[in-house]
Design a protein that fits this description.
The chain has helices spanning 29-44, 73-88, 105-112, 141-149, 151-159, 166-171, 184-197, 200-215, 218-233, 236-246; strands at residues 6-11, 14-19, 50-55, 60-62, 94-98, 101-103, 115-119, 126-127, 177-179. By secondary structure, it is α/β, with parallel strands linked by helices.
Amino acid sequence: MAYENVIVEKEGNIGIITLNRPPANSVNWALLEDLEKALDQFEKDKEVRALIITGAGEKGFSAGFDVSEAARAKEIGNKGRALWTRIERYPKPVVAALNGYTLGGGCELAMACHFRVMVNTEKAKIGCPEVNLGIIPGWGGTQRMPRLIGKTRALDMLVFGKRINAPEALNIGLITKVSEPGELMNDAKDLAHRLAKQAPLAVKAILESVTKGLETSIDEGLKVEGKNLDMVSSSKDAIEGITAFLEKREAHFKGE
């Protein structure tokens, strides 16, 4: 499948999607369509068990919405909001490899991913600075940030439009890991490969249980957890996992 605004690669059991709209990897309608197609491709590919989303170039992951398409802002905003939610609910773990500035819609995309690895450089910053333009985040920033780092810290970040570096982001729980310069993709791939070795059905069930649980009451969340436990308990992977544990060997999961 041909793509113009993303680069799509596959390495073993992981899929890699690189946002490719120089110089800032800003988000427009065409990029959203390509990203959606890439997600479709990897969701259907049974060999792929984990994804990485990163940005092309040395400047950054994404600067967010492409203001040159302001005339379509509402349309693009609706599509972006829906696509970020799809990523959050994706059945395979998604790792964001943040290779520089991760701002506005780019930060919101990163927060929709399940794991975030960020490079530790002077220029690498993450945040939602929309308030400085007299607007607010519109692709989930006001909802996902407090869920990730708590209301108090989220308000401080959002109301003042703060941009913080990787160590600060790790300290408040906004990212999963800090990478040193030159090691970002190695670290992201290492994480993705480790995720790919886990039991696919169990990982999918955990992702769904956690995500849906945060969207509803604890009682409803427990129902989702119970349903998923029943599902995975009768799987071949569960038998393999228990057998491997008893035999003191590494489990080999097939997603069955």
